[in-house]
Amino acid sequence: MGELSRIGIALDSDLLKRFDQYIGKRGYTNRSEAFRDLIRDRLVTEQTTNPGSTVVGTVTLIYDHHSSGLPEKLMELQHENHELVVSTSHAHLDNDSCLEVLMVHGKSAKVEHFADRLIGLKGVQHGRLVMTVPVHAIEHPHESGRRPNHKQIHKH
Ligand code: NI
C-alpha cells in the first residue's frame, strides 16, 4: 500500500444504514476496509474486462463424464490452449458428475474466449469464469505498458 489518504464522503443516511447492514453481515469491523474492498473489486472488474490486460483466474466446470465425447473434447481444447492453462484439478462428485477447476493465465480476451468454448461444450452443465489481477495491476495499471488506449477498446 502507498501513502494513506483520508477522505470524507457525504452519503444519504438510509444508504449508509443499508451499507452498514451489508458490511455487518459480511463480518467487516470497520467501514474503511469495506470501502477499500468495494473500490478494489470495481477496479479489478474494469481491469479484467480490458481485452489486452493480463489476468489470472479460474474456470469452474460441472459436467457428466458419460456425455458422448465430452472428456476428450475438454482435454483437446485444453491442450490446444495449453499456454493459458496453469493447472487443473478434478473431483469425481458422484457416479456421473465431475467438477473440474482450471487455473488460467493470459490476456483477458483469450482467457474469456477459451472459457466460453469450454462452458459452451455440449454436456457441460454449468460453468463459470472468474478473472482477477494482483493488486499492483490496479494501483499502477500503466506500468505494464501494454494497456490499449480508450479508442482501441471502444472504437468510438
Ligand atoms: Ni470425474
Total helical elements: 6
Helix fraction bin: 40-55%
Major pleated sheet: 4 strands, antiparallel
Strand order of the largest sheet: 2-3-1-4
The overall number of domains is 2
State the CATH superfamily name of the largest domain.
Answer: ACT-like. Chain A, domain 2
What is the CATH architecture descriptor of the largest domain? 2-Layer Sandwich
Order of helices and strands: HHEHEEHEHH
Oligomer type = single chain
C-alpha geometry? elongated
Number of strands: 4
CA(first)-CA(last) distance: 35 Å
Mean pLDDT: 90
SS class? alpha+beta
Q: Give the names of the bound compounds.
A: nickel (II) ion
Rg calc: 20 Å
CATH structural class of the largest domain: Alpha Beta
Main features:
25% strand; 6 helices; binds nickel (II) ion; 2 domains; 156 residues; alpha+beta; disordered C terminus; single chain; Alpha-Beta Plaits; 4-stranded antiparallel sheet; elongated
Architecture blueprint of SSEs:
Elements: H1 13-25, H2 31-48, E1 54-64, H3 70-80, E2 85-92, E3 97-107, H4 108-120, E4 124-132, H5 135-139, H6 150-154
Antiparallel strand pairs: 1-3, 1-4, 2-3
Nickel (II) ion (NI) binds next to strand 2.
